[in-house]
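Below is just one:
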Amino acid sequence: MWVGPQCALALSLTAGVCALPQVAPVPAERPAELIRGVNLGGLFVLEPWITPSLFEPWAAPSGSPVVDEWSYCAALGKSECYSRLAQHWSTWAQEADIATLAGLGINTLRIPIGYWALAPDPSEPYVQGQIPYIEQVLEWAFGYGMRVVLDLHGAPGSQNGFDNSGRRGDIAWTKRAGDMQRTLGALAELA
């Protein structure tokens, strides 16, 4: 979908290895340059430490069950979750932010994305609607000559058990039937 000379894919998996076919390296279409990059974490995969304002209603008492995007959406319901996240997606990163980064010499953005934006399962509490916002950030980044790494940061079943996988808790990615195929399906949507 978005892969090209300015856009690459990454898969953040820390609990398992996915065997993909060997492919020959593609010659660079741009001259080599030092990568100076930033992470747009918290934009399309919620993490309470990056986006604490979204989690404030559940901040006390400690031990709150709302600790990741899965539980956030489950607590709010899909309609309210979508409303709040659409507001977040439309305001978290703006063109002025991208322009400022480019002006400071940043030439690469890493954009973490959860599988649920690309290969949703209606039985899960996650909401969709990220794609137009992802495309907007890509347009801004490319307009300022930046490269982008689209990082499939959350895999079905959770690849690491942390909130940054979309769901904190058990690592089921390598244990549940179909999760590997759903992950590959999400990657195919990116490509």
About this structure: The chain is about 30% helix and 10% strand. The longest helix spans residues 78-91.
